[in-house]
Design a protein that fits this description.
Blueprint (H helix, E strand, L loop, with lengths): L1 E3 L2 H13 L4 E6 L5 H13 L2 E6 L19 H10 L4 E3 L3 H4 L20 H4 L3 H16 L3 E5 L3 H13 L5 E5 L19 H6 L2 H14 L5 H14 L3 E9 L12 E10 L2 E10 L5
Parallel strand pairs: 1-4, 2-3, 2-5, 3-4, 5-6
Antiparallel strand pairs: 7-8, 8-9
Helix pairs in contact: 6-7, 9-10
The structure holds pantoate (PAF).
Pantoate binds next to β2 and α6.
Length: 286
């Protein structure tokens, strides 16, 4: 595996692959890799002859009171895992390499109505930061396919929309969420949980699953389903940010005729902010 830190070197590697007509699959990450990332790399191997990953903790997507400096950085373990996953190249730039003018005055990408709702309402600027760095990375790596986890469902929706709106020549693939046996979605931020909090955390998945059952049974009393979800997360000791039912494709509020839905929840538990979602298909109504 080649580790590349400079944009100029990345361009040389990518140009060689392209001249050799080798398809490229790309998995952007912020490092601290876990089994969830392994599934993204496995998906990448299905889509590209060459697999490239990036590790970049992007300052632009962290708010002033968020965990940018404390975000877990484990470069040695990550490098070993990426080698194990058969990744051809790792792009691991510095902040200065990505934002030579400084991240504060950077051009940003905004998707009104999508970057400012749900998690975006609680983390102002977060999805603009994600969209901006992802577009920069896609321009640099020029992959045929880029893989993102469905666990960050709103992020995936924002990225699909940006790629469509800006006509970027890449196919975005969503990879299913990897869960612990008790249902908790794997996330780098789970390491912030104490043993007691870790035992409480799966309640978010259980509440989502209960909502999914009600939707799949044909219930359309969305407000009541959301209220039950909020209450059950709260009763389990998680301070909820939201528990909402949205359309799966555009994250809009559903009407009774929408069948492809997603239930999204976020809440705070100790030092961690947990997010999760479940997609479901409601019965078709005439
Ligand atoms: O999901 C992540 O790890 C990050 O948000 C991403 C997509 C790598 C952009 O920094």
């Amino acid at each position: 595996m080649q580790t590349i830190t400079r944009i100029a070197d990345l361009r040389d590697v990518v140009t060689d692959w392209r001249l050799g007509r080798q398809s490229i699959a790309f998995v952007p990450t912020m490092g601290n890799l876990h089994l969830g990332h392994a599934s993204l790399m496995a998906a990448a191997h299905l889509h590209g002859r060459r697999v490239i990953s990036s590790i970049f903790v992007n300052p632009l997507q962290f708010g002033p009171s968020e965990d940018f400096s404390a975000y877990p950085r484990t470069p040695d373990d990550d490098g070993n895992l990426l080698r194990e996953y058969g990744v051809d190249a790792l792009f691991q730039p510095t902040v200065e390499e990505m934002y030579p003018q400084g991240s504060a005055g950077s051009t940003v990408i905004d998707v009104p109505g999508l970057t400012d709702v749900l998690c975006g309402a609680f983390r102002p600027g977060h999805f603009q930061g994600v969209a901006t760095v992802v577009v920069k990375l896609l321009c640099l790596v020029q992959p045929d396919v880029a893989i993102f986890g469905e666990k960050d469902y709103q992020q995936l929706t924002v990225i699909r929309r940006v790629v469509q709106d800006l006509n970027l020549p890449v196919t975005i693939v969503g990879a299913p969420t990897v869960r612990a046996e008790d249902g908790l979605a794997l996330s780098s931020r789970n390491r912030y949980l104490s043993a007691q909090e870790r035992a409480m955390a799966p309640s978010i998945y259980r509440a989502l699953d209960q909502a999914r059952r009600r939707l799949e049974a044909g219930e359309t009393a969305y407000a009541s389903i959301e209220a039950e979800g909020l209450a059950s997360i709260g009763a389990a000791g998680i301070t909820p940010d939201f528990f909402e039912i949205r359309t799966a494709a555009r994250l809009e509020r559903p009407t009774e005729l929408d069948v492809h839905l997603v239930v999204l929840a976020a809440g705070r538990l100790g030092k961690a902010r947990l997010i999760d979602n479940l997609q479901c298909t409601a019965p078709v109504r005439e």
